[in-house]
Design brief:
The structure is a homodimer of 336-residue chains. Chain A has 336 residues and is an alpha+beta fold. Chain A has eight helices and 14 strands. Chain A folds into two domains: 142 residues, 60s Ribosomal Protein L30, Chain: A; 167 residues, Phosphoribosyl-aminoimidazole Synthetase, Chain A, domain 2. The first copy, chain A, starts with 7 loop residues before the first helix and ends in a 13-residue tail after the last strand. Chains A and B meet through helix 1, strand 2, strand 3, strand 4 and strand 5 of A and helix 1, strand 2, strand 3, strand 4 and strand 5 of B.
Chain lengths: 336, 336
């Protein structure tokens, strides 16, 4: 028996029932008025600036309906937008969900999607405040996240100076390897396979970003979403500087010893793989001693230095210098 | 000769060049940091709450690429989201633009779209603060608008009480008539044809909304985006009340005396037509004398009363009462 597709209002009710923060909870404090009116009302804290970011998450471009489980789609659409808040050194407060989907997906798919979204919302302390829904042949998602940071404390892309040291958190290329594994794998994978975990359920580095902003250790910062090569170029362009990376220092994904992964080069994944949502930041020389080797279990690795000359040079393992090729993800060049 | 499609970064630059507010202008004051970093920074005013809203504007669902000129798409995607700010009694401050489009439209189409967007941004005092772009086969737009309202002054949907009077601004059904004219018309129309003006370039009632909030005249308010019948039902549901409308009082679009429009019923357009972006609000009886017949040239019309009984009754011109049929636009029921 075919169920009657839901109306827009009843889909809103479903979203609300799944994701509304508990009244009185710390998460709901900053929301004066949530879903159900023309707009949401947010109470800004005094002496804080509001951080605003929005992110597309589109079927066929950013995820595949047959490959990506709906709860991963729900988790990731919020996590990747929250990563932009982390990259400014801020704290996520609330989000707006714009969701377009086929009427046929308003049952089980939507329920599982909302379960993933609810997990991310709770884990990241970011409450649903509003949104917009409509019908569409494919799943289209846009998430706006609102965060806050002490006035004057936001860490920008533009603060890097020649002589600063370049750091990354985590190990790069893990998400890209996970994506390839998902696509190569013939049989369905366990829901929490460690190889695909980072691609499906990325964890934005909120605590690390906030710590780097509070301590003012980082002179510049951004998150790595399109790959180190593309994103470091953006940071250098914003700061009007260049950089020199040492290939052997770059922390990279380990490639499993399996025929499936033959020919996959971990340094290529680390330089150009997308979706890692690690933090890329720079530290002035006088503050270098204050950077620990890891933060809450996440390794922090020095990978190079900022240079006055506006080019990005990679010192290869053999000792040869070459210009770093920019080959991170650009939606106007390629698709997943 | 086929031009090389732009990269994501160069599209961002194009958007920025077209829409960046002048530094030092009143529009740019609340934006501490605009496009070009991981996120935008907004400086909230003290003793104000932040209003947040987002709106889909999708090719094939909300507009048609062949029918709607790109500058109208640019104008309207912002204007309709700003209308939600007006509906709360707030002042728009800034917006985020999420834009997905085919590489083939990154030339002239994008330029004209941005010109329309820039006009709306300037006229509505709402500055571009950030966004996200990607490639897609169809044009997908999502706009997030940030507004502000004095703390405690936002006018909600939930404030209507039995005995309040129901008002609307403007004349209803004009946008729907414009859409029908656009679709019926065989030849290309003049860019500023008065019949299509309201459908293509709607003007959100920001000054009126703010005045109703400042004076505390309105006990409840929302904008009419899906049609009076659907939207009044939402207001009544939020306020847990009903309403009684008098059909003869409803200010409605005039139908031109032309064979093209034969059979089109102005009251149906006024009750169920979408996209008007007029304000629907309620006024307590003791404040009735303070409501003028028009505000800045926009008529304000009393169309009925709020009732305790939770049903919406329409008193027809002949004097017969009937339940109002809810037949406004619902994307899960129909498409344009």
């Amino acid at each position: 028996m075919k169920r009657k597709p839901l109306t827009e209002d009843s889909i809103l009710k479903k979203i609300l029932a799944s994701c509304r923060p508990q009244p009185g909870s710390s998460m709901s404090k900053s929301i004066a008025l949530g879903i159900g009116d023309d707009a949401a009302l947010f109470r800004p804290k005094i002496r804080e600036e509001t951080i605003l970011t929005c992110d597309w998450f589109l079927e066929g471009t950013h995820f595949l309906r047959d490959t990506h489980p709906p709860d991963s789609v729900g988790w990731k659409c919020l996590a990747r937008a929250v990563s932009d808040i982390a990259a400014m050194g801020g704290t996520p407060r609330c989000f707006l969900l714009s969701l377009a989907l086929p009427a046929s997906l308003t049952g089980r798919w939507l329920d599982t999607f909302l379960a993933g979204l609810r997990s991310a919302s709770r884990e990241l302390g970011c409450a649903l405040a509003g949104g917009d829904t409509t019908r569409r042949g494919e799943v289209l998602i846009n998430v706006t996240v609102v965060g806050e940071v002490k006035a004057g404390h936001a860490v920008l892309r533009s603060g890097a100076r020649a002589g600063d040291f370049v750091y990354v958190s985590g190990r790069l290329g893990e998400a890209e390897l996970g994506l390839r594994f998902l696509k190569l794998s013939k049989k369905p994978l366990k829901p929490r396979n460690p190889l695909t975990q980072k691609h499906l359920y990325p964890e934005p580095r909120v605590a690390l970003g906030r710590w780097l902003s509070d301590t003012r250790l980082a002179s510049s910062m951004m998150d790595i979403s399109d790959g180190l090569s593309s994103d470091l170029r953006r940071l250098c362009a914003a700061s009007r500087v260049g950089a020199r990376l040492e290939m052997e220092r770059i922390p990279r994904v380990g490639i499993p010893d399996d025929a499936l992964f033959q020919g996959i080069d971990s340094i290529r994944l680390a330089l150009h793989g997308g979706d890692d949502y690690e933090l890329l930041f720079t530290v002035p020389p006088r503050r270098l001693d204050l950077v620990p080797g890891s933060f809450q279990g996440v390794p922090l690795t020095l990978i190079g230095t900022i240079t006055k000359k506006r080019e990005i040079v990679l010192l290869e393992d053999g000792g040869r210098n070459r210009q770093l090729v920019i080959a991170g993800w650009d939606p106007f060049r390629e698709r997943i």
